[in-house]
Every structure is written in C-alpha cells, then in structure tokens.
Amino acid sequence: MLEPLLLADIIRKHRRIAGLSQLQLAEMAGVGKTVIFDIEKGKETIQLITLRKILQVLNIKVQLTSPLMNQIIIHA
Question: Are 36 and 26 in contact (CB under 8 A)?
C-alpha cells in the first residue's frame, strides 16, 4: 500500500524536477492550488479523479498488482 507521505514526496519531487510551481501544476491539472498543497503535505482524503489529473500531468503511471491479476480479464 502506498503511504500518503510517500505519495506526497513522489509528487513533490516530480513537480520540482519538472520545474513547476504548485500553482502551475494546479492550473495544468485543472485543480485548485490548495489541492496540490494538501497532497504534498500528505493529506489522506483526495478524490481519485483529482489524483489521476495530477499524476497525468506529471506523467506518473500507477500499476496495480495482485496474485489474481492474471485471472482477471481487463477491458481497456
């Protein structure tokens, strides 16, 4: 399970390496600046759609794994 503070650190580092301010990332993702601030501080409650927008801007991919993944048919 990805801990909130680890996710916060990953997002913050990707944003900084991309040369973006919190405001710039928020504008690019179509979210409020306080959302970026909250995520980077490790806030645990965030809407999935909001997180997906931020990850997409930063080109961060999420991979789900489990022992059952080979048995599950996934339709994209």
Answer: yes
**In angstroms, rounded to a whole number, what is the distance separating the alpha carbons of residues 56 and 30?**
11
DSSP 69: G
- Are the beta carbons of 31 and 50 closer than 8 angstroms? yes
> Do 46 and 39 contact (CB within 8 A), yes or no?
yes
> What is the arithmetic mean of pLDDT over 43-65?
94
pLDDT at residue 67 tops 90: no
**Which CATH number belongs to the domain containing residue 35 in this structure?**
1.10.260.40
Parent domain of 51: 4-57
Domain count, the chain: 1
Mean pLDDT, rounded, for 36-56: 95
